[in-house]
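Ticket #4471: structure export looks truncated?
Reporter: QA, pipeline team
Priority: medium

Steps to reproduce: submit the single chain below to the structure queue and open the exported record.
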Amino acid sequence: MKLTVLTYNTLFAGRDGSNDTRAKAQISLINDLKPDVLLMQEAKGFDANGGAWLYAMEQQIGMRGFLAVAPRTGQNIAIFIHDSLRPLSFDADGVHFHHTLAMLKVAVPGTEQPITFISAHLCPNGPEVRRREAAYLAVHAAPERLTLITGDFNSASPHDPEPKDWSALATHHRARYLSDDLHGIDHSVLAHLEAAGWVDLGYKLDADRVPTVPTAAYRDAEFATMRCDYLLASKALAACASSYEVIRTPATDMASDHYPVLATFEVQ
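Actual output as written to the record:
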């Protein structure tokens, strides 16, 4: 079975106060791409009013949603699945993560083994905190299982060169990414995850290492030009990965400060 997976940090669920222009653009994109699984970060407000925005989005994209509430920051995480996938279990961890973590295990038609999808949004405030969060992700890297972690890792990859605009980034923003030597950009979070066995699909399948931040409309944001959003697969699932693409269009240029990433898998 061909399985398509989209991960997207939507920047406050695509809403700027009462203005939902970006949210509408994001929903249009999702409906055009028709992913089987959508892993959404910054689902802010989705827990309010009895989950009204969560249920509205379910209706607008025709997918079932599962919400992990971020108790301290409000930056919730949601996972949506097509009705061809059968949910087996859902867990959230708002204790060990700055925001929260969402973990959904599903049965896939025609496959013997379930797939676990994990959506993460690691702490923006420094690699020390992110390394602690990564330790809780490392334990899920069993090579024989079908597991995928996606999301905003607020971290650079050891496979990528230092961003060309790294030195131009304001010092108070650069501090979020500084390595322990206080000069270069930190790679330790992704390095630790790969050492645990996770496979970086962007590195595996995208020779150009297309950056995921910042988007064209947010050039003056707090990011250097880099890969910040990742799909990390267990070895068994990485063997099923057939494509990977950072979606860069006029719509995604303005819909968030992050570009969404789409991957496909051939699972049996």
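Status: closed, not a bug. The export was complete when the record was re-opened. Leaving a note from the reviewer for reference: The first strand starts at residue 2 and ends at 9.
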